[in-house]
């Protein structure tokens, strides 16, 4: 379902298998467990790269899981979807509070909560084609969780881009995502995306930044989001004065 590997200063968390990596309680728990493992092993200069096998980065919440476990009740299916929304909020909080730079290597489609997973990283590197950002909520008929909206306001600078992504459900390919400021870089192939992600991680890792300081500076950029996620900030001085 997902794995964590460490090579030098780079942790690589990979969503494994040929599936569309739908976010259900099992996958969410696995992601959080591996993030906690990487955090426990972090040293100055550590970097996280998140990637996924197959055609999808993540296709959002596992609606089939909610229906399967609802006992045929539409109301219970909705409650299970809300449960997944609540669980996934902790993944976003983990990433916003993560004590190292984070990079999403998006080599496949990232829809709804899958797009939230990607842009909750500090940097997104995306495949030029056959990889799409898509916020599907208006198409499927559900409002946005409050922290989704806070992530979009924090991470997407241009109001017209937020409007088109959220209110027109635009499917945005790599080069357009770059032009709209949704991603950091785009590349032609899966291999190039992964290599660029690792290369960026290695460049940042050489700086040997203190992870706790890095996380506090990140949080200081997004006051609305950290409030929504229930995170707090603190002042740190670790400089050699």
Low-confidence segments, given as residue ranges, are: none
Specify the CATH homologous superfamily: 2-enoyl-CoA Hydratase, Chain A, domain 1
How far is the first residue's CA from the last residue's CA? 46 Å
CATH topology: 2-enoyl-CoA Hydratase, Chain A, domain 1
> What's the total count of β strands?
10
Tell me the quaternary state. single chain
Alpha plus pi helix count: 11
- Mean of all residue-level pLDDT scores: 96
For this structure, what is the CATH class?
Answer: Alpha Beta
Helical/strand content category: alpha/beta
Tell me about the largest β-sheet. 6 strands, mixed
Total of domains: 1
Helix content: 40-55%
Q: H/E series, N to C?
A: EEHEEHHEEHEEHHHEHEHHH
Please state the CA-atom Rg, rounded to the nearest Å. Answer: 17 Å
* Strand numbers in spatial order across the main sheet: 1-2-3-5-7-10
CATH architecture group name: Alpha-Beta Complex
């Amino acid at each position: 379902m997902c794995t964590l590997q460490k090579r030098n200063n780079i942790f690589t968390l990979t969503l494994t298998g040929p599936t569309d990596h739908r976010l259900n309680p099992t996958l969410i728990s696995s992601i959080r467990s591996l993030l906690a493992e990487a955090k426990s092993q972090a040293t100055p200069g550590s970097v996280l790269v998140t990637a996924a096998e197959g055609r999808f980065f993540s296709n959002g919440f596992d609606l089939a899981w909610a229906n399967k476990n609802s006992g045929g009740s539409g109301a219970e299916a909705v409650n299970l979807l809300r449960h997944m929304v609540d669980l996934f909020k902790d993944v976003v909080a983990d990433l916003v509070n993560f004590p190292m730079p984070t990079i999403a290597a998006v080599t496949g489609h990232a829809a709804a909560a899958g797009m939230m997973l990607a842009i909750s990283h500090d940097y997104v590197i995306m495949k030029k084609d056959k990889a799409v950002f898509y916020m599907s909520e208006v198409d499927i008929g559900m409002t946005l969780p409050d922290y989704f909206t806070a992530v979009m306001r924090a991470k997407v600078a241009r109001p017209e881009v937020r409007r088109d992504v959220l209110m027109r459900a635009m499917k945005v390919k790599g080069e357009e995502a770059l032009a709209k400021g949704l991603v950091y870089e785009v590349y032609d192939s899966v291999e190039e995306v992964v290599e660029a992600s690792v290369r960026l991680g290695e460049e940042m890792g050489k700086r040997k930044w203190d992870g706790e300081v890095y996380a506090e500076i990140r949080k200081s950029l997004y006051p609305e989001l950290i409030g929504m996620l229930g995170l707090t900030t603190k002042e740190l001085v670790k400089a050699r004065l």
